[in-house]
Design goal:
Strand order of the largest sheet: 1-2-3-4
Strand content: 15-25%
Mean pLDDT: 88
Largest sheet: 4 strands, antiparallel
Oligomer: single chain
Helix content: 40-55%
Number of strands: 4
Number of domains: 1
Shape: globular
Distance between the termini: 30 Å
């Protein structure tokens, strides 16, 4: 959480000049509370509906890379993106992964507990800083003010949680973990997969189930 807070603090500094309307603040807090409740209930469809278009698009890109990305392509990604690609590849059968829309994949991830309850269990929404169509939500962790933690985007259907800054903020943590282990990032990623999945993961994980040119991703709003 600390890395994510550091990244989002920079975003918060951009919007700090305008505190945002009370209506925006309440709407953002309500959206976060609804997302938290959906994740804790394991309601993937509800949780996916509360995430931003950019989040769905990101999951769609990782989905296509999981199906079609060869080793050099995937290994050139950031570690957090490599992690997402390999987890989808190793967790979801190729036939199912090919059929899911990006939004459906988000819902499936929540249903399966891959977007974990621990990530929101101890959080409560705090103040909101907003400017235009971007807002940053501060959170309380176990009753303590933990500062800015989540970005929201205003979309036609309301404020939506954008998970991209939170996901990308964890990349530095993964790089440090690989360095501390004294292994290459490629080796570290396979070790990480074994730790998460609880089973042996071989270098075959870098081979896509459906090599070749990637088709255009499905529309993010499809289910």
């Amino acid at each position: 959480m600390s890395s994510a807070r550091n990244l989002l603090l920079a975003i918060a500094l951009v919007v700090v000049a305008l505190p945002g309307s009370a209506d925006d603040g309440e709407a953002v807090r309500t959206a976060f509370s609804a997302y938290r409740a959906a994740v804790l209930a394991g309601d993937g469809a509800a949780a996916a509906g509360l995430l931003s278009t950019s989040t769905h698009q990101y999951y769609g890109e990782m989905q296509q890379l999981a199906l079609h990305g060869d080793a050099p392509t995937v290994q050139a990604l950031s570690l957090v993106d490599q992690m997402q690609v390999l987890l989808f590849r190793l967790r979801v059968p190729a036939e199912q992964l090919d059929e899911l829309s990006p939004k459906g994949l988000v819902a499936h991830s929540v249903d399966e507990g891959w977007i974990g309850k621990d990530s929101v269990l101890t959080l409560a929404p705090g103040k909101v800083q907003s400017e235009g169509d971007v807002a940053v939500l501060h959170v309380f962790v176990n009753g303590q003010d933990a500062g800015p933690a989540f970005r929201f985007n205003r979309e036609p259907t309301g404020w939506k949680l954008d998970l991209l800054p939170t996901l990308q903020a964890s990349n530095a943590t993964l790089q440090l973990a690989a360095k501390e282990r004294g292994v290459s990032e490629d080796e570290f990623m396979l070790i990480l997969m074994e730790s998460i999945l609880g089973r042996k993961v071989t270098p075959d994980a870098w081979t896509p189930p459906r090599p070749g040119e990637r088709p255009a991703p499905q529309a993010a709003e499809d289910s």
